Amino acid sequence: MIYFTSGHTAKGFVQIAETNVQEIKLCILLRGGGDFAQMECLEEIEQRLKKEKVAFECIRSPWNAALPEGLIVGEIAIWCSSYVPKLPAGTVVRHAAIRPDLLSAPMSSKTAHLAYDCFRKAHFVRDEWESIFVKQLNKEKADQLAKNWMDFLIPEKPGSMQKTVHRFLGAATPSGTVDCIPQLTADLSKRIFIKGRPGSGKSTFMKKIARAAEQQKFETEVYHCSFNPESIDMVIVRELGFALFDSNAPHEYFPENNQGDQVIDMYKELIKPGTDEQFAKEIELYANKYAEFLDKGTAHLLDVYNDKKKTRTATSIAASRTAELIWNYL
Asked: How many CB atoms lie under 10 A from the CB of residue 68?
C-alpha cells in the first residue's frame, strides 16, 4: 500500500502519520547523509521487500513522490529522521547511521516559507471561490443525499474493528501535484467518483460517510486534502469494499468499464441551477488567481528541492550497507 502522511499545505508542512503507527513496536530512524540519501536507502529496502514478496506499507515523500520517507513492515517502522512521526509510548527506537560523521542537513526554511505563503494566499482565494457555491447549496438536499448513501454503503450489522487512520491521498511536490488514488482503490468493488465545484459539499458529504462507518465499527481510512488538511478528499472502508473520493482537478478521474464505478455530481444534485453562468466572471477570476498562487508555490518548492539535493553526501555504498543492516531486523 502506498500513501502520504506529510505534505506541503496551506497550513505549512503538516504530518498526520500518528494513527498509522499505533501498532509499531520497533522504529528504526535513519540518520546522516542528508534526507535524499536516507530516502534512497529506504527505496533499496522497498525494492527488496517487493522482491521477497513481503507485505509492507510505503509512505511516500512530498519532496519526491518516487521515494519513501517511511516504511511499515508489520510492527516495525523505518523512517527518515527528519520526518519521524509521534510514536506510541513504549516503542523501541533504534538509530541506523548512513554517514555517522554527517547529520542530515535542514530544509531551507526561508524558501519553504515562501512556498507555504503562496499556498496560504491560494487558500484565501479558494475560500472566496467556494463561497459562491456555498450560498447556492441546498442544505436539506445535502443532508438527504448523505443519508441515502450512508444507507446504501453501510449495513446496520456492525463491523469487526473500529479503527480510523488518517492519511493524505497525494501531495503537492516540487514537480506538481501527485496522488495515489489508482493504487489505493484498485482492489475495491465499489468506487464512487464525486464531482462538483469548490464549496459544493464534497468534503462534508465524505465526513458524514466516514463518521457513519466509524459508528458501525468498521476500519476506516480517511484521506485528507493535500492542500487543505481540514478537508477530506477520500474515504475507504475495505471491509465493505468501497471508496468514495473527490474526483476533480488536480486528481480528476473517470469511471472505467467497471459496474462498481458510480458518479455523484454534487453540482447537479445540490447547487442552484444556473450558478456557473450567473457567476462566470468571478469564477474565472478566482480560478486563475488560485492557479497562479499554486504555480508560484510549486516553483519555490522546486528551489528547496534543488537545495536539498545538493546536501546529499552519502555514497551509494554507504546507503546500501545501511539498508543491508536494517534488513536483518525484518
From this structure: 25
Distance of CA 194 to the CA centre of its chain: 17
pLDDT digits over 231-273, tens only? Answer: 999 999 999 999 999 999 999 999 987 778 999 999 999 999 9
Report the distance separating Cα 43 and Cα 59, nearest Å. 11
- Give dist(CA 32, CA 285) in Å, integer: 47
- CA 111 – CA 209 distance, rounded (Å): 39
Amino acid at 298: T
- Rounded Cα–Cα distance for residues 71 and 254 (Å): 30
Give the integer Cα–Cα distance in Å for 116 and 110: 10
pLDDT score of 314: 54
Residue type, 202: K
Which stretch of DSSP H or E encloses residue 12?
Answer: strand 12-15
DSSP bridge partners of 237: 242
**pTM exceeds cut of 0.85:** yes
CA-to-CA separations, 201 to 196, 198, 222, 236, 266, in angstroms, rounded: 8, 8, 17, 18, 7
At 264 the three-state DSSP class reads: strand
- pLDDT tens for each residue of 201-226: 999 999 999 999 999 999 999 999 99
Which residues touch 90 (CB under 8 Å, ≥6 apart)? none
